[in-house]
Amino acid sequence: MKGDSCKNPMDKNQLGEPLPSRNQTVGDTPELTTVAGAPVESNQDSMTSGRRGPLMLQDIWFLEKLAHFDREVIPERRMHAKGSGAFGTFTVTHDITSYTKAAIFSEIGKQTKMFARFSTVAGERGAADAERDIRGFALKFYTEEGNWDMVGNNTPVFFFRDPLKFPDLNHAVKRDPRTNMRSANTNWDFWTSLPEALLQVTIIMGDRGLPSSFRHMHGFSSHAYSLINKNNERVWVRFHFRSQQGIRNLTDQEAATVVGMDRESHQRDLYEAIEKGMFPKWKMYIQVMTEEQANSMKNNPFDLTKMWHKKDFPLIPVGEFELNKNPENYFADVEQAAFSPANVVPGISFSPDRMLQGRLFSYGDAHRYRLGVNHHQIPVNSPQGVKNYHSFHRDGQMRVDGNRGSQLHYEPNSYGNWKDQPQYALPVEKTGSTDILRYDFREDDSDYYTQPGKLFRAMTPDQQQVLFENTARNMGDSTLQIKHRHIYNCYQADPAYGEGVAKALEIDISTVDLNLPARTSREANYEANNKHPELNQPTMKKDSCREIDTNGDPCIEPENDPWLL
């Protein structure tokens, strides 16, 4: 027994002799420069006034080095702060095209590059790996239709079913505000106050609550998602990822030994396995539930605190992923990795799971705080598989991808840029007596002209003339198509309004198409906007030197103000 006390419990993972922890990689050009590219003459001694004098402000290398050091640590994740990651490949092994039109699953044998990050939940960035805790199981697939993020855990359920409790869980499992220590009392006070947490607590307190490595645990989407096929038919699914290395766990006693010997035990295990060519693999399965089955379920099928019974919803094989490449730089690829369940692709979508709905906002918002609004430009987060990437967003700190150049940055416009793609609309989803849809407000109320007409007629002739002149000046060198479009809109409100604007713009109103499609739907609105592209040519600015007296009654009392309809 005495000899066993020195045995490393991690030996059960059968990795063999440990690899050296040193890193001997050097750059292509080992000579040191500043960030501006200038040579650094000395990285050994600061510049001073005399041998024992003070530092000089002109020692720019000292200033740059210390200033960067002061800022090189970014905020850690609120949860899942300590983690490990690797790149790999997903391969389709079974046909599920009857359930989904997602291109990633389009044919057997198809391969997609991916990145995975595993983590503990409660611990900070420097916490030990071998702690009893949920493990994060986050996957990013670089598909040709965009990034698909599967942000799961190594358990199929969770503590609660309402995202309003997310901050409370964080506070309960992290450090006490007075002692700055983790407290079993606060942790268990929170858990036991939520009876729905018992299934998750039972899993964590069981032997699988402390995996011996990231390689030896299963993964789960936990949430229900939806798959949509080419016929726009929906089914509900849960994803499972089954470790092909088998399940191996640590006892609390073994974990105490591991932590004393190696706080980075799980990071070391994953890194060394890949370096040695022992590439870990997981098989992907789905459980499928039809909408009719979901509607007839006694329990809420979108309740994250409950599983779907495998006898009722058997696991259907889909594919397999293999992790086969370690990151060259941990910070660049693992620390800056940003996963969000909101990142889905055509053929994969969401469910009414309240926890999932809450995460759709929270994860992206956390990335914008932690990494910046342009975190999608970081290589590990960029949609590497997409050929025609055309994101709308502009500017923001650290925008370094050309910022979409000189492209128009608004929609709708007269040039067909930033077209939405209605062919990817989701099938109608019912919630009780209502449907979840992108309702076209024009179909409910397309009366755009009655009130502008009333306001125009409430104006005095002088005020109307001011309106015409101001409009003509402000439209500047807008194209003829845009000016015709505005004349049309004004004419619908009141013919005199349209005629007055046309005259001020020196446009013969008989040349204006006053029979454009009524804007009673989104499609009709697009048709009206894009009609007559032959008029898409610049015009001369209009000006007026006419002075019109616009002074009138002060209109203090609302009942006497003709402009208040």
* Main structural class: alpha+beta
- Given the C-alpha coordinates, what overall shape results? globular
Strand content: 5-15%
Number of strands: 12
CATH architecture group name of the largest domain: Beta Barrel
Low-confidence stretches: none
N-to-C series of helices and strands: HEEEEHHHEEEHHEHEHEHEEHHHHHH
Binned, the helix content reads 25-40%
The assembly state of the depicted protein chains is: single chain
Overall number of structural domains: 2
Described by strand count, sense and barrel closure, the largest sheet is: 10 strands, antiparallel
Beginning-to-end CA distance, first to last residue:
92 Å
Notes on the structure:
- The protein is globular.
- It folds into two domains: 83-381, Beta Barrel (Catalase HpII,  Chain A, domain 1), CATH 2.40.180.10; 450-560, no CATH class.
- By secondary structure, it is α+β, with helices and mostly antiparallel strands.
- α2 runs antiparallel to α3 (184-192), α12 packs across α14 (495-504) and α13 packs antiparallel against α14 (495-504).
- The longest helix is centred in the middle third of the chain and has 17 residues, at 354-370.
- Helix content is 26%, strand content 14%.
- It has 15 helices and twelve strands.
- The chain has helices at residues 60-69, 166-173, 184-192, 198-205, 252-261, 265-275, 291-295, 330-335, 354-370, 441-444, 450-458, 461-475, 480-493, 495-504, 522-530, and strands at residues 83-92, 111-120, 135-143, 146-153, 219-220, 225-228, 234-243, 281-290, 316-325, 348-349, 429-431, 434-436.
